[in-house]
Structures are given as C-alpha cells and as structure tokens.
C-alpha cells in the first residue's frame, strides 16, 4: 500500500502545478456553492444547522488531516482539543463575557495551547505508539470533564450559555441559523486558507517529506520531532476552533465531545473523503453528517451504516472519495 | 506509513463486525391515518440504546399505545396525532442533536422525553430557546421543576425529592441511623443523594460514607469492599438503568444483602425483570405499579397493553409515556390551539382523568412549577416471586403530600412578555 501511496503523490504533484486554472475554477465553484447554502439547502430537504455541522466537522477533520494525511501521524485524540475548544467557549460565555469573538478566541487558544504543550510528548514515538499516547492524553481530558462536576457540569454537560449577538461595527446582529452558518463558513474559509499557505510553504513540504520518508529526513539532520509537533499544534488549534463553533451552534458542551469515539469520527471523515486530498475531509463530512442525519431517523443502528460505508470505501477507494475521483479524471 | 495503514485496516475490521449486523435492521416508519388532515406532531427523544434503553423502550411503548388509542378515538381536535421517536442514547449532546432535527426537519409541535435527567435538562433549555412546549416524561432531577424551571417545561415523573421522601422514614425507623450511598455521577444521583442527606441530617442520622460511580460502571467491587469495611446499617443505592442492575447482582455475589439492608429511592419493573432471582431484594419506591386493587380503568389498560405488546406488563415508564401523550392532547383541547403559550396555560392545573391517571388519586400538573403531583408507591421487593408480580406496594401516597412547595423547590416561574 505504501508504494501505492508514493506513486499517487508523485503523480498528483506535477498535476497540481499544471492544473492551476482548474483548481481556481474548482475553488470558485465550491465558494459559490457554500455561500448560497441557506438559499438552496431547504429546497432539497435540508436545514441550515445541518450545513453548519458539516462545515464544523469538515474543519476539525481538515485540521486533523494536516497531521494525518500530510505529516503521517495518526492521532486518536483530536476530540480532546475539539472538546477543550467547546468547553472554553462555553465557560467564557457562561461566566466571563458576552463577546462572541472573545469567547471563540479563548476557546481556540485553550484547545490549541493544550495541543502545543502535549504534542511534544506524543511525537517522541512513532506509529502505533504515537496513536496510543494521543488516545491516553485525549481520554485524560474526557475523564476530567466527566468528574469535575463543579466546573464542567460533569456527565450532564455544560449548559446555561447562549449564542451571543454578533457585535458588528455600530450595531448588533442576532445570530440565527443563517448568521451562525456564515460565521462557521468564514472560520472555515480562513482556516482553509491558512492550511493552504502552510502546505505550500517550506514547512508544508517538510511535513510531506516526513510522511514519505521519515528515516531519510532524520539522516539529513532534520529535527522531525519538532516538525511533527508543529503540525500537531496547528491541527490542534484548528480542531479547537471547530469545537468552539460547535459549542456556539448547540448552546451546549457535552463531555462526549472529548471522547475518543469523537476522534474516531474525525478520522472516519478524513479517511472517507480522502486524506491525501486538501478538500477530502469536506467531502467526508458531507457524507458522514448526511448519513447520520437521514439514516438515524430510519433506524437506530445508523452507526452500522456508517461502518458499512466506511468499510466499502476503504476496500474500494482507499484514497477516499475525492482521491477516487481524482484518480479517475487523471487516468 | 505501514504502521498506520495496518491500524486503519484493523479499525475497518472492527467496523466490519459492527456492519455485519445491519441486514434487516431498516425498519419502516408507522402509522397511517385515513383522513387527509395534517397531523399534530409530537417529537419524542428517548434512549433506545445505552444503559437507559430498557426504560426508554417502555416510555416509547406507552406513548405509542396512547397515540394509537387517541387516533382510534378521533385524534386531537379531529386531527391525527403523529408521534416521531428519535434515539437520544441517554446522552445530552445526542438528545439535543435529535431534538434539533425534529424541529428543523419534522416541524414538530411539541417535544417530549427522556429517561435521563441530564438529557431532560438539556432539552428543557433547548425547547426554551425554540419557544416550544417540552413535557419531560422520565428525568427526575429536582432542578427541572425547581431552580431551573422554565415556563415551557412540564414534568410527568416525580422529583427526586418525592422519590426520597416516599420511603426515607420507613427505612430510617426500620433499619438504622448510619447510611452508605453508592450514587450515579450525574444530575439524577447528585440530586437524590442531596435529598437523602438533608433528611438524614434532620433526623440525626450519620453518613458512613459515599461513592460516586460514573454512568456505565460495570465493576462495583471496589465500592462494595469499602461498604463491607464500613458496616453501615443501610446501603443506599442511587443508580440508574442497567448500572443499578449490575450493582445489585454484585451485591448479591458479595452476600452484602444478607448483612446490610439495601434500599434506595427508585426501582423500576424493567430492572427487577432483568435481575436473577437471588439478586431481587431491597426497599424502594416505585412511581406507578400495574397491580393496584380497586383502581378504576387499570385492569382494562393492563389488558389492552398486554394484548399490544405480546403479554408484556406496563411499567411506570410505560405509564409516563402514556400519560404524557394524553396530557398534551388534553392541554391542546383545553387551549383549543397549538400555540405554545396557550397550551402551556392549558396544561397548568390540568387534572388527569381517572382513565389516564390509573391510580387512586387525581394527579394535577401544578401551575406554579409545572410538576405533576403523581402518587408514590413505596414498598419492597418480594422474595422468590415471579415476573410480573415482583414488588409489594406498602402504601400509595398522594404526590402533594410529599412534594416540596414550588417556593421551597426554588422555582421562580417567569413568562416571556
């Protein structure tokens, strides 16, 4: 499988250079589709909050994918940073402030800093040991949230905060589903742009090089641990931002947001959509959230359907849905 | 890289195992109504999975039974009633997700559920933000109709205070002063223990100790070893759902029920049914029981319910689902409207008629805190008994004798202007 991946990257890399105009068109189309969601989504039987949820999960999975798909580190603990972002926002709104951006900023900072500080511990090991450490760290936060009743509300979750109004220049805008969607979309666009810049900078090339041949970089004298830690930190910040937005969307933070099963969901989203692909997690999130939403109204065993979709996609398109289509159009 | 793909493959194998069970699980939604009338929709979020599943299923069965009965008798204001059920998994986050979908996609008129206290609190807040009536079927935490009461939230099941007040004095007089608590670590358990402690202090009892067990605990041995060492007079179990079942089994294995009186606030028929015969013991409070001599309409209800559900007996949970669905119907008919505020006013002071109440007293949704004044059924588990006759009700106490006044419960009801 690893040779398969190597040829895949080798083949798509030159395409990325020559296909600039195609990429621009793709981005514009995606932008228009996302900007007009509140107009067309109700027509096809959806609702705006569902689109917000898709973007939030996509954002978290894209953050995770910087580490997973581009740096080659399989983290099973990103829900912890997602959840910390959510609790950060919830606690700020409940006790400290009514400012949307201050709360979101603090939430992102809390989750991101946790990833920055704890990443270096995990990156000391590679492969399965790395994954085990990330699970352990993630579960630690989960149990803190479950047991620290006075601060986090324990199993009951953190409630009692509402989405504040948007303090625009000169006036307050109330944040209904549509307002919330555009906030999420703006955050998604900014984070995607930052990720894009990082991936095309020398830093991003270093990440990919580590993924492709970790040993060789070590021989060349590159401090790979430091680079993986940087990737871990950036992806943690993005997961925390997504978590904060999730708390705003729900007006509620649950300890389950920190659980490793949530990390598993993000991994499924990234792998399902295509972890070598920049927008793979977005495609994965669309599939995951829609299947969850529609199938769970029909049967309680919706996780089985997700599992089935996942197994089928791993067997038949190991590069994810977007990877599959890219390959088709390439050949 | 190789490590990673190996790990992903292993995950997919695990997932494959889960996926293997999928065939035949896709159920078709019910029901059908002959008229072309637009249905009145009640969204019900209740656990179908998780440790609360057994209770959730009973509430849903009760509600569906009521739905069928109401539609047979001409619906609500000659419109059909449609009950749409979603699985909240006994978890507040999931419950809110499901409620969100019910509001956005199904355009429900009313929301009801759920077995789990934490989910009920979360849904109450959610409904408040969406200006919707929420009728809590089975979450007992005091705060829901106490310090956190909302103008749009009503509750059919009892408060934890009513549960603990129902049997405290009996237990205290019968077994002794020193108590040990094993308590489930969420809103429901915290509230129950606080209520018992308050009464224990008032009567001059002592706390031998207490332990908080996380939801979903399967191994209680570390707590039980401490109980054996502390030798309290009463071991008070304040657990929920299957946790209580697991703990009672382990207590029987340790032989603690032979040395120490085991008691607690709430027992459910579902739990007793799930226990092996040697692990059925203790003094508890039930909130409704299928066997009440001389209660009108009860025998017919039990008979019809058993006919629909293959001989299964209705539990307190079934009755919560049944009574809650009827309460919404009655409130809508009283209000002659579906507008949230008018229906809220219709439900305030609503007295359940005997054919819905199915108990000797006439329970009413108290206007000041929206709490139903249902009766409590303290008693003890019968030794060596067979399902369904597992519990001996020692008395049926009217709810208003046990409940705190709305002021003492801390409810200050405010309405939107």
Automatic annotation (TrEMBL), chain A:
GO molecular-function terms, A-Z: branched-chain amino acid transmembrane transporter activity
Q: Which GO terms describe its cellular component?
A: plasma membrane
Q: Where in the cell is it found?
A: Cell membrane
| Topological relation to the membrane, as annotated | Multi-pass membrane protein
User: Any idea what this protein is called?
Assistant: Amino acid/amide ABC transporter membrane protein 2, HAAT family
Name the domain of life: Bacteria
User: Which CDD domains did the record assign?
Assistant: TM_PBP1_LivM_like
TrEMBL record, chain B:
Key words of the record: Amino-acid transport, Signal, Transport
Species this chain originates from: Acidiphilium rubrum
Q: Which Pfam families match?
A: Peripla_BP_6
* Ranges where the Leucine-binding protein domain occurs: 39-382
Q: Name one GO biological process term.
A: amino acid transport
Q: Which Gene3D superfamilies match?
A: 3.40.50.2300
* Record bears the keyword Calcium: no
Family to which the UniProt record says this protein belongs: Belongs to the leucine-binding protein family.
**Cited SUPFAM superfamilies:** Periplasmic binding protein-like I (SSF53822)
Q: What is this protein called?
A: Amino acid/amide ABC transporter substrate-binding protein, HAAT family
Q: List the PROSITE patterns hit by this protein, alphabetically.
A: TAT
Supply the InterPro entries for this chain.
BCAA_transport (IPR051010), Leu-bd (IPR028081), Leu_Ile_Val-bd (IPR000709), Peripla_BP_I (IPR028082), TAT_signal (IPR006311)
């Amino acid at each position: 499988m690893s040779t398969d991946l190597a040829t895949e990257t080798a083949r798509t890399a030159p395409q990325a250079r020559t296909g600039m105009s195609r990429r621009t068109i793709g981005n514009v189309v995606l932008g228009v589709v996302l900007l007009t969601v509140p107009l067309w989504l109700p027509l096809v039987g959806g609702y705006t909050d569902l689109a917000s949820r898709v973007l939030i999960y996509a954002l978290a999975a894209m953050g995770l994918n910087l580490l997973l798909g581009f740096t080659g580190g399989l983290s099973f603990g990103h829900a912890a940073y997602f959840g910390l972002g959510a609790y950060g926002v919830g606690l700020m709104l409940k006790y400290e402030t009514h400012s949307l951006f201050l709360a979101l900023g603090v939430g992102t900072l809390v989750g991101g800093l946790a990833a920055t500080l704890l990443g270096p511990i995990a990156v000391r090991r590679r492969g399965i040991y790395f994954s085990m450490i990330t699970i352990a760290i993630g579960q630690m936060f989960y149990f803190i949230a479950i047991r620290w009743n006075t601060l986090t509300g324990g199993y009951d979750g953190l409630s009692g905060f509402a989405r504040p109004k948007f303090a625009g220049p000169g006036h307050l805008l109330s944040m209904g589903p549509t307002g919330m969607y555009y906030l999420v979309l703006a955050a998604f666009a900014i984070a995607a742009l930052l990720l894009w810049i990082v991936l095309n900078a020398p830093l991003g090339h270093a990440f990919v090089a580590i993924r492709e041949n970790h040993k060789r970089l070590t021989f060349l004298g590159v401090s790979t641990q430091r680079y993986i830690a940087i990737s871990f930190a950036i992806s943690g910040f993005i997961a925390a931002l997504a978590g904060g937005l999730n708390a705003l969307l729900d007006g509620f933070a649950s300890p389950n947001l920190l659980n490793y099963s949530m990390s598993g969901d993000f991994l499924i989203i990234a792998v399902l959509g295509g972890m070598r692909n920049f927008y793979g997690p977005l495609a994965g999130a669309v599939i995951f959230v829609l299947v969850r939403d529609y199938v769970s109204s029909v049967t309680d065993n919706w996780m089985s359907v997700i599992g089935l979709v996942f197994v089928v996609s791993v067997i038949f398109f190991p590069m994810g849905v977007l990877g599959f289509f890219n390959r088709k159009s390439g050949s | 890289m190789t490590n990673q793909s190996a790990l992903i493959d292993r995950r997919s194998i695990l997932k494959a195992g889960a996926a293997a069970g999928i065939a035949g699980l896709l159920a078709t939604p019910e029901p059908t109504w002959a008229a072309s009338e637009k249905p009145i929709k009640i969204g019900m979020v209740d656990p179908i999975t998780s440790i609360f599943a057994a209770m959730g299923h009973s509430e849903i069965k009760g509600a569906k039974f009521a739905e069928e009965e109401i539609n047979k008798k001409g619906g609500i204001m000659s419109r059909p009633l449609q009950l749409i059920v979603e699985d909240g998994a006994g978890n507040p986050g999931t419950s809110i997700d499901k409620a969100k979908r019910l509001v956005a996609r199904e355009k429900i008129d009313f929301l009801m559920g759920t077995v789990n206290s934490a989910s009920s609190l979360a849904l109450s807040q959610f409904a408040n933000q969406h200006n919707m009536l929420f009728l809590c079927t089975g979450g007992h935490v005091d705060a829901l109709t106490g310090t956190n009461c909302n103008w749009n939230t009503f509750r059919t099941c009892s408060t934890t205070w009513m549960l603990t007040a129902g049997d405290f004095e009996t237990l205290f007089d019968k077994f002794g002063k020193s108590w040990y608590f094993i308590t489930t670590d969420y809103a429901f358990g915290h509230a129950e223990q606080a209520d018992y402690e308050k009464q224990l202090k008032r009567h001059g009892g002592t706390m031998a100790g207490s332990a908080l067990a996380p939801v979903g605990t399967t191994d209680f041995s570390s707590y039980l070893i401490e109980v054996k060492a502390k030798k309290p007079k009463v071991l008070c179990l304040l657990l929920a759902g299957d946790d209580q079942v697991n703990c009672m089994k382990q207590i029987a294995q340790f032989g603690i029920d032979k040395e120490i009186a085991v008691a607690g606030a709430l027992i459910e028929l579902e739990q007793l049914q799930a226990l092996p015969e040697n692990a059925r013991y203790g003094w508890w409070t039930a909130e409704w029981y299928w066997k009440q001599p001389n209660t009108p309409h009860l025998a017919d209800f039990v008979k019809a319910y058993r006919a629909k559900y293959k001989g299964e007996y209705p539990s307190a949970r079934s009755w919560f689902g049944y009574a809650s669905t009827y309460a919404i119907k009655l409130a809508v008919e009283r209000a002659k409207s579906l507008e949230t505020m008018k229906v809220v006013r219709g439900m305030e002071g609503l007295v359940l008629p005997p054919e819905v109440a199915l108990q000797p007293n006439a329970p009413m949704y108290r206007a000041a805190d929206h709490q139903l004044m249902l009766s409590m059924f303290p008693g003890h588990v019968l030794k060596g008994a067979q399902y369904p006759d597992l519990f001996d009700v020692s008395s049926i106490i009217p709810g208003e004798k046990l409940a705190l006044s709305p002021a003492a419960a801390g409810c200050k009801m405010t309405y939107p202007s």
